[in-house]
Amino acid sequence: xxxxxxxxxxxxxxxxxxxxxxxxxxxxxxxxxxxxxxxxxxxxxxxxxxxxxxxxxxxxxxxxxxxxxxxxxxxxxxxxxxxxxxxxxxxxxxxxxxxxxxxxxxxxxxxxxxxxxxxxxxxxxxxxxxxxxxxxxxxxxxxxxxxxxxxxxxxxxxxxxxxxxxxxxxxxxxxxxxxxxxxxxxxxxxxxxxxxxxxxxxxxxxxxxxxxxxxxxxxxxxxxxxxxxxxxxxxxxxxxxxxxxxxxxxxxxxxxxxxxxxxxxxxxxxxxxxxxxxxxxxxxxxxxxxxxxxxxxxxxxxxxxxxxxxxxxxxxxxxxxxxxxxxxxxxxxxxxxxxxxxxxxxxxxxxxxxxxxxxxxxxxxxxxxxxxxxxxxxxxxxxxxxxxxxxxxxxxxxxxxxxxxxxxxxxxxxxxxxxxxxxxxxxxxxxxxxxxxxxxxxxxxxxxxxxxxxxxxxxxxxxxxxxxxxxxxxxxxxxxxxxxxxxxxxxxxxxxxxxxxxxxxxxxxxx
Length: 511
Description:
Blueprint: E1 3-8, H1 14-23, E2 27-30, H2 32-40, E3 45-47, H3 49-52, H4 67-74, H5 80-89, E4 96-100, H6 104-110, H7 114-119, H8 124-134, E5 140-142, H9 148-156, H10 162-191, E6 204-209, E7 219-223, H11 227-231, E8 233-236, H12 241-254, E9 262-267, E10 270-276, H13 280-290, H14 292-295, E11 299-306, H15 308-314, E12 321-327, H16 329-335, E13 342-345, E14 358-363, E15 366-371, H17 377-381, E16 384-385, H18 393-407, E17 414-418, E18 421-426, H19 432-445, E19 454-457, H20 465-473, E20 477-480, H21 487-497, E21 500-503
Helix pairs in contact: 4-8, 8-10, 13-15, 15-16, 19-20, 20-21
């Protein structure tokens, strides 16, 4: 008779799985809570102590760490010497192992009690998973409840193939690797400020993209904590690798203003339009004015619900992607006429504000890792006025918008905002003054008047030349981190030109 060992923390579907195995002639062996659930549901399960010939001990810390368990899993059925030794030792084969692990993640999310956290580190579970995965040539290892029906179907149809067992083996090692990585990362966060000798970045695949940044590269989307699989929904079209990076950038900016009606247009990772207005339609209309040429084929993030009226406006030019909190049925129908446009939503009233605590970037043969950067509202509220003139209420709102957009734009950058809309942006330049001048030149080309606008930079101005250029364009207020050895010259220039100048004291490079 074939034997299956079932010991799971996540008990969803386990009764049905056990009953399916029973109907196929498997003897069920189980432990603790899983055993109790199975017996209460009418499954004839055997207590693991009947196999180990040893009781559970040390308050359940030791249940399955026993040669009768691991010998039953690990001995090779294709080696006569293994079979002979198993017989001599009285070790009976275990042909299927179904294990998932103690809820460590759930525990650290609900408590800071270190003793409770330690007790929710699984030991026997990972050992059994690894044993069964190592011997996948003979043993079926199941770690995901979503695979229960697939395994039962394969067993019923006598299709317990090596390919099936190999795929389950890979999934099992992914399961234990992710589990151990989570524990190591937690311990480093608790005791080493998050920067231990090893850093583990673990994501779960959501889907493959058609290719990476270019057609000769493979690509895929991976997620933390089921974020995309639970929230991100394709309404129309398939997200490419480049779409996903642009969507992330656009959503970060559009969602940075809470429940305000914000719209951000992104092209190649950089904002080319942004506005906040009383309605999303007006916000998009104003955002588009900043750089309508670059917006062509761009990604638009709508911080709210796209209705029919807005959909008609968006449909006037070619856009590659529109991402929103949600879309009305009328809007989806309007977009259906455009074959190439892609629509994605988060199923919410507003766009999500991402909560990543850490950030990393691949470099040659490694990666750099850091705390995630985020503009805090108090940076703007508590910004220090450095000049005789102060900004009025409208200018302060424009400074807030310009500063938040600048923090999420490639360095070196300068952002100009007027009446709640971005009117010019220079980004990714090697010189900050060049970024400022390029932005103003672009505004002039599209006929936007920047007189009276607010200006922001994500880092300090090293010389007064950027201030002089801003004054010549009619800029009335500026916000920047400060910190240059020539801050006094910059402040003097602002006073000469009657510009309100604020220092936040926080730099927001984005390289």
